[in-house]
Each structure stands twice: as C-alpha cells, then as structure tokens.
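STRUCTURE REQUEST FORM
Protein name: KANL3/Tex30 alpha/beta hydrolase-like domain-containing protein
Source organism: Falsiroseomonas algicola
Requested output: structure tokens
Priority: standard
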Amino acid sequence: MIVPAGRPGPAFYLAGDSFPDDVGVERALAPRLGPHFDGWVGQAALADIPGGFDPAIAARAAQLEAALPEGPALRRVVLIGRSSGARVVTEVACRRPVQAVICLGYPFRRPGGPLEPARFAHLSGLAVPTLILQGTSDAYGTPTAARFHPLSPHIQVQALEADHRLRLAAPDWDAACRLILDFCAHAAAPHDLTG
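Status: completed
Returned output:
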C-alpha cells in the first residue's frame, strides 16, 4: 500500500511512568512541534479518558489505541513517547501503521536490572519509521548500548547530550525538535509499506 505524502498529524504524546513529574518534556516539545502537526494530543488529554493515567504498559497501549483515528487518517498520525511512553507507542505502532514514531529516552534496560526482552523484543519487527533520541548518559541505555539490541532497519538512533530526564537547555530542545521535524517530513514522503 502506498502512503501519500502530506502534513503529518495529529501527534499523540505519551509521558513516562513519572507523569506528571516529567511534564517539562511535553512543555518543551508541544510549542515547538505542535504548530507543525494537524493537532496535538498530550498526556493530560489521554489521562482524561475514562480510567485516567495507568502506568501499566498494556493499559496505556489500549488507551492510546482507543484514541487513534481509523482508516486512512491513521497513516498520518505521529506517535511520540518518553521513557515508558516510548515503549507504549512502539508497541502500538507494531499493530497500527502510523506515519512515524518518535522516542525520547527509550527504556532499554532498568538501571542495574537484568535484561527484560519484553522491553525491546518488538523493536526488531517495527515497520514504521522510528527515531530514537537517546541521552549519552541515559541510565536506561546509551545510544551505543541501544545498538546492541535487535533493532528494525526502520529505526534510527540519534544521541542527545542528556540523561534519562532529558534536562535540556532551550537551544538543545530547538535542535532536537528540528531533528524530529526533519524525520517526520521524510516519513511523510510517499513510501510503500507492503515491501
């Protein structure tokens, strides 16, 4: 199936387990990215769905899937997630062919914990164009460590000078959002999802 080019959107943003403590990430992204999409659905809006904010991965995935449009409109959606929100959006994208996925601080491995394939095994089969922005001092996995996991060829990993909390100065957020917008523009170009 050929996906037509066009303006991306809406964008759906999912925070990490620490929501609302990590709301600063969405506050940095929304004003920089929102105007470039046909709508912005943030974590607070998703949490207002009956059931509220449930940190469980399966519950959040079901909540997100219920909020997504059906039919051709789905292929214009961009999913953005931070930390566990990144895990949710990638799992959903394995089932729902959206236009692009953006991950910030993907939680590859709990600090000091054992490998948990449930965190990353699905990434090997992800067919949606995906950008992972990973902090060089992220305790859940650096960009170098990320490349040792089985990643689909549709996934790109870019380094950010940051930790897992993504405490970035305004110019660094500007640069990160330019990367995201460039990636989404490329993903919006016509491409065949059948091959």
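Reviewer notes: The chain has six helices and eight strands. The first strand starts at residue 2 and ends at 3.
Form closed.
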